[in-house]
């Protein structure tokens, strides 16, 4: 609705009338447009009222308006999950700013309505001699529940802006305790990779979760321990030294498990109304007491952003994503705060070292280089400024969005006869002719990535259908650059339109 004189307008950037929302947290982004300076409205806030169609439930929210007229409103529909089971609920949204009002209607779909069995389950791992009180465990589980809902919203938001609708994962249930017979001391001794291997095996062999092949797990190790006194004694507060004194910690995803340490949950919100304050917190981290992982921002807000961004990143690996130079799967995961905040200043954080994602669960551990330094190109402050201005710096590159959009855990189904087409055995590489083939009828190639063996960094990627006049491509000849890369420690990741994926040429 436009004001009487057409001067003032409320625009929604990421929501349309009638849109279906399947995630409990919804971020609404929009702008106030003022066409004339004269009689400018000086109000600093926009108000939103969300009402259930039958008027049995209501929500009141407000957001500041940024210098450029931007606003962001985060809505929590979690209560609708509790009250109702299998249903779609019409919600009426009423935005008010100065003398103007804009209305919009959306449909909220409860997770019971969504019939998928492909879901994400969060676990909180406790050791047999763990000292934490039930209240501490409960607090951490509540933080995990809230923040996995937030990450779910981020995925929906990112895929919508990539043109794939609000696809995101479905949560199976609240965080469950996973008791291991290991002692804390045994956990503290293990490297990140062996923790991942060990817990992946334990979860798969457990009576509760063993048979659940349609669940992926996001697990937090409860006993992660930081020796701040030892760090203080050395006087070396670098991330490397902090990490060295952090035991039982991981931030590693792959296969069916993304594994994290619980040491950084201190900076995470437990309740919905604490989210903005946590992102905005400038409180400095006392490195003698608490570990810091904030890409050197050293604030609670920085720790929250980096470690929540790491959850988005590692969950991405469990959905087959490789690394990219920029965006969530590369240097961009520190910036998740910018998705939710307005009036962001340009942050020029150091480029990261891209780490090897967790391997597919195997009994042998193959010796591989652990870290690979990415080459720093021309990433100037100005470049960062433009990048952050246009897309918050937190985004999935197109190749990543394609992989997610074709994933079963993101609700992707390929017609009624999906089963017969999901066989990845029919994806082949013809080394003589240098081409990738899909031999299943009706299942053309969708994406081909050339990834580094060392750190899964995507060097080249191709989307066959968009480059050709023909819509369905079953045979793709690799360009020279790709063939050359395959000679030099790279492999292929191939995705078909039915969502079948396969890694080829993994020497
Ligand atoms: Zn990674």
C-alpha end-to-end distance: 60 Å
Q: Strand fraction band?
A: 25-35%
**Bound molecule kinds, no repeats:** zinc ion
Tell me the overall shape. Answer: globular
Average pLDDT metric: 87
> What profile does the largest beta sheet have?
5 strands, mixed
Helix content: 25-40%
Helix tally equals: 14
Number of strands: 24
- Describe the strand arrangement of the main beta sheet, using strand numbers: 2-8-7-4-5
> Low-confidence parts lasting 5 or more residues at pLDDT below 50?
359-379, 416-421
Task: Give me the Rg, rounded.
Answer: 24 Å
Work out the count of structural domains. Answer: 3
Name the structural class: alpha+beta
Quick take:
The chain is built from 14 helices and 24 strands.
If you had to describe this structure to a student in words, what would you say it looks like?
It holds the Pfam family Metallopep. There is one protein chain. This protein has 507 residues and is of the alpha+beta class. It has 3 domains: 8-109, Sandwich (Immunoglobulin-like), CATH 2.60.40.10; 119-405; 416-504, Sandwich (Immunoglobulin-like). The protein is built from 14 helices and 24 strands. Strands 2-8-7-4-5 form a 5-stranded mixed beta sheet, with no helix packed on it. A 5-stranded mixed beta sheet has the order 10-9-11-15-14, sandwiched between helices. The chain has a 4-stranded antiparallel beta sheet with strand order 21-20-23-24, sandwiched between helices. 39% of the residues are buried. Zinc ion is lined by residues 313, 317, 323, 355, 357.
